[in-house]
Automatic annotation (TrEMBL):
UniProt keyword tRNA-binding present: no
Protein name: Iron chelate uptake ABC transporter family permease subunit
Domain of life from the UniProt record: Bacteria
Transmembrane stretches, start-end: 25-49, 70-89, 101-117, 129-147, 153-178, 199-219, 239-272, 284-305, 311-330
Topology versus the membrane: Multi-pass membrane protein
Pfam families named among the record's database cross-references: FecCD
Keyword terms: Cell membrane, Membrane, Transmembrane, Transmembrane helix, Transport
Length: 340
């Protein structure tokens, strides 16, 4: 009954053809899977080091290229899912970890761990990033409850203001304790240092994906508001807590292992919902695939544009993401001006 109600309510205001998209293994999806596999193959054989012409090429292939490609796929899926859940819970398409301050809180968590432990392990850094991501995301949701939202633009503005404050605090603390190098290296999100032993925690993202899929119906109901969710038998506060925890887990892991990756959670869910509506369960595989494809494309470009040097992938993501952000704003402005 709950599942049926969720499906019916999630269809309100979404694509009227959404019920035709519930089948997963359609030809478009199969073609998308092959496209991702093709990008993965290109990523494996793209780089300055000639793995086919060197004696240790095979060893380098499995030490650096395979972990890098796998980390690209897992990271793309994680950030895209985090953006999707955030947009659903806040009922706002302009929200993602970059525009809510979540990623800045992760950076503050990493800095705090470095202050306490001079040479922290990856597990310690990841724990600090996840904990502070949870605190920051919870604070953002709490602020939204207390602010009267007259425009959808208020939500990302509040998030970016909060993120700017946290970023300023991180910079001040870094300057005070001479740790600015740690902050700068974190803000430059890059996959150049990924190798065996430095990316394995990203596999936790698979567990996060499964949990989001299991809770998809309840998260969809929570996105319709507290009154609707409660009337349909869902504990609204509990599901918001769970959604916040899953977002924080995904973002914290990525922040500790890779660094800051802006706007990925904004681009992908908006493109998917544009064609498929707003149902979380049926959109989740598409969001994961498109997230993988987006970040792999940006990473391949980062390696070939000025070869033999490498551009940080965060720079390309930030450029593309900011352009998409502006286009979404312009589209919403035109829609608001169109008479109904």
């Amino acid at each position: 009954m709950l599942k049926n109600a969720a499906s019916q309510m999630a269809g309100v205001g979404s694509n009227p053809l959404r019920h035709h998209h519930n089948k997963l293994w359609t030809w478009p999806f199969i073609l998308a899977v092959f496209a991702i596999l093709a990008l993965g193959a290109i990523s494996l054989f793209t780089g300055v080091y000639d793995i086919r012409g060197q004696a240790d090429g095979k060893e380098m292939f499995f030490t650096t290229r395979v972990p890098r490609t796998l980390s690209l796929m897992l990271t793309g899926a994680a950030m895209a899912m985090a953006g999707l859940v955030m947009q659903l819970v806040t009922q706002n398409r302009l929200v993602e970890p970059t525009t809510t301050g979540t990623i800045e809180w992760s950076g503050l968590g990493l800095l705090s761990v470095y202050l306490i432990f001079p040479a922290p392990s990856l597990l310690l850094r990841m724990t600090g990033a996840i904990l502070f991501s949870f605190i920051g995301t919870s604070l953002f949701f709490l602020l939204l409850r207390r602010i009267k939202l007259r425009s959808s633009l208020i939500v990302p503005i509040v998030g970016m203001m909060l993120g700017a404050v946290i970023s300023a605090i991180s910079t001040f603390v870094g300057l005070l304790f001479q740790m600015t190098q740690n902050i700068e290296s974190w803000y430059i999100g890059s996959f150049s240092n990924v190798q065996i032993g430095r990316y394995e925690y990203l596999w936790i993202i698979v567990l996060v994906t499964v949990l989001i899929f299991i809770c998809a119906d309840r998260l969809t109901l929570a996105g319709l508001g507290q009154d609707v969710a409660t009337s349909l038998g869902v504990n609204y506060n509990r599901i918001i807590f769970l959604g916040t925890a899953l977002i924080s887990l995904a973002v914290g892991i990525v922040a500790a292992v890779i660094g800051n990756l802006p706007f990925l959670g904004l681009i992908v869910p908006n493109i998917v919902s544009m064609f498929r509506g707003d149902d979380l369960r049926s959109n989740l595989p598409w969001v994961c695939l498109l997230g993988m494809g987006t970040i792999m494309t940006c990473d391949i470009l980062s390696r070939v544009l000025i070869m033999p040097f490498e551009i940080p992938v965060s720079l390309i993501l930030g450029t593309v993401g900011s352009a998409v952000f502006i286009l979404i704003l312009l589209k919403q402005r035109r829609s608001a001006r169109t008479p109904r």
